[in-house]
Amino acid sequence: MKYAIFSDIQGNLPALSTFFAATEGIVDRFLCLGDIVQNGTSFDEHRCIELLKQHHPSAVRGNHEDRVLKNYDQSKKKISPDNLEYIASLPLELTIGSFYLVHAPSGKRIFTPEQSEHEFQTFSGSQICLFGHSHKAMVLSKNKNGKISEEGLERKILLRPEVTYMINPGSVGIYPGLPQTYLLYDDQTRQLELKSNIKNN
After folding, report:
1. Which H or E element spans position 181?
2. Of 72, 100, 105, 144, nearest to 5 (Cα)?
């Protein structure tokens, strides 16, 4: 099965549309790691949820969803009750086969191997933790000796069965100034590839 792994849309409808156009017909399943919306003040956030639902992703809830739901009376002026109900129904964590999905492990932003040491102990039943929140595309690996390393994403990475991983696809919808990225993963070849959310790339 081929997966598209993405996170942190943050209400950016053009970016989400570009992402789905780029992955159309080449993946079997979408894994969304949260922050679909921004702050509940734009109709584009409603449209992002609508577009997301059309692709039936496996998804978890991010802190921006919680923020929008907390301000329900304000948010319902831009986002339909059905779509607010949808984001409220998303779990905080989800296990799918060898994947453990969470938006922010322990509520933290992770940027370095050192910051991930505790988190590697929290998903012992899965081989691969997929997370978002920090907007930084990265692959952290922990070998059987307990050594944690960051692996480069300049080329395709082969995920090894004896290694445990924490993987962040970056942000598919962060606004200009930061890279817009997502990941493709083929569970037959075990190859992971970073993609840029730019047309014709």
Report:
1. strand 181-186
2. 100
